[in-house]
Amino acid sequence: MNIKQKIDNLRQEIDNWNYRYYVIYQPIVSDFEFDKKLKELEKLEAQYPEYYDYYSPTQRIGNDINNNFAQINHIYPMLSLSNTYSWEGINDFYNRIKKILNENFVIACELKYDGVSISLIYESGLLLRAVTRGDGTTGDDVTTNIRTVKSIPLKLYGNNYPRFFEIRGEIVFPWAAFNKINKERIENSEPPFANPRNAAAGTLKTLNPQVVSQRNLDAYLYQLLGDNLSSDSHYENLQLAQGWGFKVSNIIKCCKTIDEIENFINYWGKWKKSLPFAVDGVVLKVDSIRQQSLLGRIAKSPRWAIAYKFQSETVKTTLHSVDFQVGRTGIITPIANLEPVLLSGTIVKRASLHNEDIINALDLHIGDQCYVEKGGEIIPKITGINKEARLTFGNKAVNFPKNCPACNTPLIRFQNETAYYCPNYTQCKPQIKGMITHFASRKAMNINVGEETIETFYRAGLVRDIADLYEIKIDDILQLKRWAEKSAINFVESVQQSKQVPYERVLYGLGIHFVGEVVAKRLAKAFPTIEQLSIANNEQLTTIDGIGNQIAQSVIQYFSNENNLQLIRRLKLYGLQLFTIQKIFIDNKLAGKTFIISGIFRKYSRDKYKELIENNGGKNVSSLSAKTDFILSGVNMGPVKLIKAQRFGIKIISEDEFLKMIE
Q: Is-contact 222 169, C-beta < 8 A?
């Protein structure tokens, strides 16, 4: 046997041991024997670098090189699931599927893992890329970190898998590993992770793959996607994937009746804490891929699936005090400080009280015994008070402040709103820092700066508003402690690059109350320049789809403030995009034609197809009518659109047909 064959045999043997240990829990060698073989392979690979293989089991460990996460577009959108906490919701889902399909169907019931969603792309049996959910359209490329998760195969078994496919699942932090790392963090005077989901998410975004490798994350796969799947059955596809080396839970049941579904949910609702990982419900999916395609999707979720969320656990503890926090928009949020208590596997010390109305409804007093639960097993909240246990003296009632806890400005409360606001946004420190953080965020200006750095700049007097970011010089930063020249240069370059961010994102970054991403896009389209928007009246604003009186008044109020107008003049002076760049038609091949885009696409994103339509003289519309010329259809086109298209005689075209039209 030559050296190459010996190395190949060792790799194959260790891959097999990894699979048996991490995926099917059937180890066949001791840890000592495994480590011995791994070291032998490492030694041979070091001696014969010409036989280096990126997919070798020795390459899972990672290295100390930091990497920035690239943004990757999903081939298929990573939709979120509709959810319910009631049997009524399950029955509604089941009956809706029954009515739409009007044929026999099977529901696959699976556990809902409480971790981080991941999309894995394989080509020719090799792991090509791993991407987080992100915003559902675009996610972070975390391939380097995912390679260290030992239950995810770098190279598949057998040869009966599709040449190119995607498989999705959940990265979880098993309870044993989670408890171990929290114990170590406490011993090292580090704050413990709040729960396994947060720990998994934080670990996956760590820039050091070696740290990820040491934390023993696990992965369960639950959906196969691709053009050439072996079976029409979701369940059968998962069983095939298990044979390729993927970890697929055996806790999955194909149900033909509503009673079977309820039995599955009841069983795991009772025994969920016996599992080695956190779960927060059960996912129901129509098993047939064909039927899934017929059912299609709504804006954010598939019609063919729903998540049943387990009811929250409730515990009793003591209220010690209440803090009132100031958010970036000036909203005052009361936070209860509690006697630490174990709730759903985590230590709870704080809970949101949301607003004054809730405090008054609870009749909250310091020292009260409170009933606390986690909404959806995530956010702690006080749901009640044990008034019988309240002392007859010494319990001080919790009263909402009349003045801002940060700047002492009298608070205001708008009509029909439950929140109180601090109106002093130009001088209130938490608002200033929050506004700058929002402005610099990825979805706005995408400036490479975090909350801690903004705090440092604020304390040094470098920033008091968003425009000040554009005045900071490298020399200013180098005067601060622990700042290297390279970091200072990177920050300043990031600020300069933000000047190319389009108008709609600048508008979103201004932080106008009630103006989120979608509203900012609509305003930018209706008013191509900031000057036009600044003089718009209520009537002009409310004629825009999706903009009501509340948003309109907020926009008008913002631009009626001289401080804001002065801020915008400064931003304009610094060269920010405060106008819409008019699109120039590349061609007029689609002139006079209207299109609706529906479904999931393989070659380009929906936004890219919309751009191609407009660049070739066509028009995108949002609703079907007899005047619509074409439906550009991908996978999972909605059944309602299909019915309407047939009624109106609208031509349905594929991606390839569309691309031929604009060649």
A: yes
pLDDT at 471: 94
To the question of whether residue 35 is assigned a binding role by annotation, the answer is yes
The string of pLDDT tens digits covering residues 255-287 is: 999 999 999 999 999 898 889 998 989 999 999
Residues 167 and 218 in one domain: yes
**Residue 531 assigned to a binding site:** no
Check whether residue 365 and residue 265 sit in a common domain.
no
- Both 343 and 433 in one domain: the answer is no
Distance, CA of 632 to CA of 637 (rounded, Å): 9
Is there a contact between 526 and 518 (Cβ–Cβ < 8 Å)? no
Contacts of 532 (CB under 8 A, 6+ apart): none
* 287 within some domain: yes
Tell me the average pLDDT of the chain. Answer: 86
**Known active-site residue 603:** no
Is residue 277 assigned to a domain? yes
Same-domain status, 165 and 300 = yes
Instruction: Give the number of other Cβ atoms within 10 Å of residue 268's Cβ.
Output: 22
Closest to 395 (Cα-Cα) out of 368, 357, 370: 368
Q: Is 32 annotated as a binding residue?
A: yes
Q: Is the dihedral of CA 396, 398, 400, 405 positive or negative?
A: positive
Structurally, the chain folds into a number of domains equal to: 6
Q: Are residues 335 and 276 in the same domain?
A: no
Partners of 309 in the beta sheet? 281
Asked if residue 657 belongs to a domain, the reply is yes
404 is in an annotated binding site: yes
Residue 566 belongs to domain spanning: 503-573
Active-site entry in 4, 39, 43, 112: 112
Separation of alpha carbons 524 and 171, rounded Å: 39
Q: Is 34 annotated as ligand-binding?
A: yes
If DSSP states are collapsed to H, E and C, what string results for 5-21?
HHHHHHHHHHHHHHHHH
Poorest-pLDDT segment among 157-161, 184-188, 260-264, 434-438? 184-188
> Within this chain, do residues 600 and 475 fall inside the same structural domain, yes or no?
no
511 burial via Cβ count (<10 Å: 0-12, 13-18, 19+): buried
Q: Residue 85 domain-assigned?
A: yes
Residues 172 and 120 in one domain: yes
The rounded distance, in Å, linking the Cα atoms of 99 and 50 is: 62
Annotation-wise, does 155 bind a ligand? no
Q: Which of 643, 660, 636, 663 is nearest to 77 (CA)?
A: 636
50-62 pLDDT, tens digit each: 888 878 887 764 4
Q: Is 110 annotated as a binding residue?
A: yes
Give the residue from 466, 453, 464 showing the smallest Cα distance to 508.
466
Q: Are residues 116 and 218 in the same domain?
A: yes
Comparing 7-11, 208-212, 523-527, 551-555, which segment has the lowest mean pLDDT?
Answer: 208-212
For 586, residues 6+ apart whose C-beta sits below 8 A from its C-beta are 615, 616
Whether residue 395 is predicted with pLDDT greater than 60 in this model: the reply is: yes
Q: 422: annotated binding-site residue?
A: yes
